[in-house]
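Q: Please design a sequence for this.
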């Protein structure tokens, strides 16, 4: 596989170039103008943030990308798939409400939001992979339907992948709800009972009520997550 070119930049702005202009320069340097966007549907894969959470890229950055795609003749849209966990993005209606509350409305970004795996997260395309762990990936239909895929992501720690950036944003985040279930079902938490003091904190914060404390110990493995 050909090695990727990776460009780094700082968050420093100058009187001649603000951060949004810098993002535009970064995209130009990375070769955006070599991509044929003419009349192409360009999916900008992003994370809209949970309701009340501020850990997402500001919509201003999404607008810079969408405007550039349009300038190059493309049809951009912002997209993500529904989450498996309980939260404010588990179906398309809640997901859109959250995206708009967090500033990703068409008025702000100049492009529409499509939830790639549809109303209840069942709108998926089966993609044959024949990988070691996944034989057939379940990917949100609108992402597979797009002609160009752009990952616009923040960087974070993640309990399964270690760190989350572009690969996680696309690889995990493009999975439909069933796809996400497959990714997570082999990663069930377990408890070292010799260290458990039976405080019950895990049971109180678990969205699925999985750890049921018995005889002052959390269970060794969780069955309903
Ligand atoms: S009950 Fe849960 S949170 Fe408390 S010590 Fe045991 S495993 Fe940890």
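A: Design:
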């Amino acid at each position: 596989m050909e090695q990727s070119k990776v460009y780094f930049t700082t968050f420093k702005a100058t009187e001649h170039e603000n951060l949004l202009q810098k993002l535009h320069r970064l995209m130009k340097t990375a070769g955006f103008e070599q991509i044929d966007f003419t009349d192409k549907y360009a999916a900008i894969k992003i994370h809209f943030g949970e309701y009340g959470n501020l850990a997402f890229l500001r919509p201003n950055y999404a607008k810079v990308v969408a405007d550039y795609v349009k300038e190059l003749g493309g049809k951009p849209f912002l997209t993500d798939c529904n989450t498996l966990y309980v939260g404010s993005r588990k179906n398309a209606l809640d997901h859109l409400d959250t995206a708009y509350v967090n500033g990703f409305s068409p008025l702000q970004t100049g492009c529409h939001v499509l939830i790639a795996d549809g109303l209840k997260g069942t709108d998926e395309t089966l993609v044959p992979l024949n990988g070691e762990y996944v034989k057939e990936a379940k990917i949100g239909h609108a992402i597979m339907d797009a002609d160009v895929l752009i990952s616009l992501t923040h960087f974070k720690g993640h309990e399964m992948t270690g760190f989350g950036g572009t690969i996680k944003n696309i690889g995990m985040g493009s999975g439909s709800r069933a796809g996400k279930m497959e990714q997570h079902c082999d990663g069930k938490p377990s408890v070292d009972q010799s260290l458990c003091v039976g405080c019950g904190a895990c049971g109180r914060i678990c969205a699925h009520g999985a750890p049921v404390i018995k005889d002052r110990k959390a269970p060794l493995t969780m069955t309903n997550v």
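Q: Thanks. Anything notable?
A: The beta strands are 41-45, 75-80, 112-115, 124-128, 136-140, 148-151, 156-158, 162-164. The mean pLDDT is 92.
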